[in-house]
Every structure is written in structure tokens, then in C-alpha cells.
Specification:
Elements lengths: L16 H18 L13 E6 L5 H12 L3 E6 L11 H9 L5 E6 L4 H6 L5 E7 L5 H15 L6 E5 L6 H12 L3 E5 L15 E3 L2 H7 L2 E4 L15 H8 L3 H5 L6 E3 L12 H4 L6 H23 L2
Parallel strand pairs: 1-2, 1-3, 3-4, 5-6, 5-8, 6-7, 8-9
Helix pairs in contact: 1-11, 2-11, 5-6, 5-11
């Protein structure tokens, strides 16, 4: 298969296994490119991409921008803090104004779940979802799976536990979809208050004891607690959360086997993960960051090739 089955990347749930294989194969090629002395390819010289971030982001935004520049695309950045959205302009008007400047592709992060899907039905451009509220974050899930494949050889049959604030996490949902598509077994672990009701219907196991979850898994993906999405308190105190669901070196060393530790960032050191774990050989957190650029290059390249047809 040489092209994606979709015209946008709105969420993992719209992809199939062949799409993921193609993205990974393309990312392998780009990973080689970004490790050369000259890290650029002229693939998208005639494509203009707008990054629309209606929510704060550091890593994802930088990663997308770097991926676009490595592909030689023209890039414009839009931040809602300094925009007419603050003056009451609608999302569609804002986007249509940007598209009238002959922009081909939009990378959008938005606080509302489904914003990308809504936009894809109303504007004429290719859209990549860089996170919509607590819903999906597809490129993060792709780079997470790609990093697991790189470290363990394959994703199929692996046991992956996602630990922490599952309720407010777009990373968790996208990861569940991506891992299951590739044949991995998925468990979520965290305080009961931070695990969505009926999540078992997605075919995931639920565990509230971190040590049991870690003994089961090959890979632990540690999520941060998203205080900015919480209007109420979901657990008594940060200290208590850390005692029950924080990963430290003592706990890691007490396991029967060596597991791989991941984190989508930003890390709250000393809360969900201690520094000695984050900086240990078992953690592949910086590999995830490096792979993020290759994965985003692959997604942008494959979607852009569909625009050109």
C-alpha cells in the first residue's frame, strides 16, 4: 500500500492497520534523513502549512514545525492568544481567512473535542489533529507505538499499561486505539476517579494497584495529572497520588522483570515519575521526542501527496 486510506488525520479511530504500517515505514526513512548532516529534503517545497494552536503547546508545536521545515514546506504559525478569535470571530471564519492565503494544510490543536472533524466538513484543506480537548492526539499515539516497536522489535502481543489521569487524557484514548489496532494488550491504571466509566467496553483491562499493573506489563506509559482540565479535585493530595501511582526507582527495581518506561511529556518530576526513573536506561522518553519529528514528517508527507493528486 502506498497511500493512506484517509485524507485527514483526525484521530486514530479513522485509521486502519495498513495506514499505521505505511506511516511507520515512511518514518523509518525520515528518521534516517534527520540523522544526516543535512537534515532537510525538498519533498514539500510547494506546500504551505498553517499551525493553528488554540491551546498552549510547546513540544507538539515545536515538533510539527521542525517536521514541516525538514520537509521544506512553507510554515505559518497562528496562536489564538494574539488573534481575532479573542474578538469573537468564529473558528470557520478564522480558518477560511487563513486558507484564502493559499494554505494547503492545517495542523490544529483545539480545546473542544471533535473540532478537527467539524472543521474537515466545512473547509477545503487537509487537517491534522494535534490534540482536541481530552479526546484524541493521534500523532502522539503513533510516535508512542513507533517507539515501542523500535525498543522491543514489535508491538503485537506486548502488554502496555497506561498509568495516571486517563479521564482527561487525549493521549490515553489515541494510544488505546493505536495499540489495539497493532495487536497489543492494553491496561489502564490510576485512581478510580480518574478512570472513565465503561472504559472496559473499549477492550482494556482496569487495575487500581500500580505494582500489579507493572508486574503485568512490558511497557508503562506514565501520564501526568492534568490539573488544568480539572474543575474539581479528583484525589486528596498530590503527595497521596504520588505514593499510590508515582513510579520511583525502588518500585521499578522490585519488579520481576525489566520494563520499558514512557512519558508523553511534559513530565512532573517527583509526581508521576521520579527523576532517577525518567533519566534511567529503562526510559525511552527522549527517543519518543526524536521519533515524534520523524512520525510527523511521515504523516505530513503522506497527506500532502494526496493533496497533490
Amino acid at each position: 500500500m502506498s497511500e493512506l486510506s484517509v485524507n485527514h488525520l483526525l484521530g486514530i479511530k479513522y485509521l486502519n492497520k495498513q495506514d499505521i504500517d505505511l506511516i511507520f515505514k515512511t518514518a523509518d526513512h525520515f528518521k534516517e534523513v534527520i540523522n544526516r548532516p543535512i537534515k532537510k529534503v525538498p519533498s514539500l517545497r510547494d506546500v504551505t502549512i498553517a499551525n493553528l494552536f488554540f491551546e498552549n503547546s510547546t513540544r507538539t508545536k515545536l515538533s510539527f514545525e521542525l517536521a514541516q521545515k525538514r520537509l521544506s514546506a512553507d510554515v505559518i504559525n497562528f496562536s489564538s492568544a494574539q488573534s481575532s478569535v479573542k474578538k469573537g470571530e468564529t473558528l470557520i471564519d478564522t480558518v477560511n481567512n487563513i486558507l484564502s492565503m493559499k494554505v494547503d494544510m492545517l495542523v490544529m490543536r483545539h480545546p473542544n473535542p471533535g473540532a478537527g472533524v467539524f472543521l474537515s466538513k466545512h473547509v477545503n484543506a487537509c487537517i491534522i489533529n494535534a490534540g482536541d480537548g481530552a479526546h484524541e492526539h493521534p500523532t502522539q499515539a503513533l510516535l508512542d507505538s513507533y517507539s515501542i516497536r523500535e525498543k522491543l522489535g514489535e508491538v503485537v502481543g506486548k502488554n502496555v499499561v497506561i498509568v495516571g489521569d486517563i479521564l482527561h487524557s487525549r493521549v490515553a484514548l489515541s494510544n488505546i486505539f493505536a495499540l489495539q489496532l497493532q495487536g497489543a494488550n492494553v491496561m489502564v491504571c490510576g485512581p478510580k476517579t480518574l478512570i472513565p466509566k465503561h472504559i472496559e467496553k473499549l477492550g482494556v483491562k482496569v487495575e487500581t494497584n500500580l505494582k500489579k499493573a507493572l508486574n503485568w506489563c512490558d511497557v508503562a506509559n506514565m501520564l501526568r495529572v492534568q490539573n488544568e482540565r480539572m474543575a474539581i479535585s479528583y484525589f486528596p493530595s498530590t503527595r497521596e497520588y504520588t505514593q499510590q501511582f508515582g513510579l520511583n526507582k525502588t518500585l521499578l527495581n522490585s519488579l520481576d522483570k525489566e520494563i520499558t518506561v514512557m512519558h508523553p511529556g511534559p513530565i512532573n518530576r517527583g509526581v508521576e515519575i521520579t527523576s532517577d526513573v525518567a533519566d534511567s536506561n529503562q526510559a525511552i522518553i527522549l527517543n519518543q521526542v526524536e521519533n515524534g519529528v520523524a512520525i510527523r514528517m511521515a504523516v505530513i508527507y503522506l497527506l500532502a501527496s494526496k493533496i497533490k493528486q
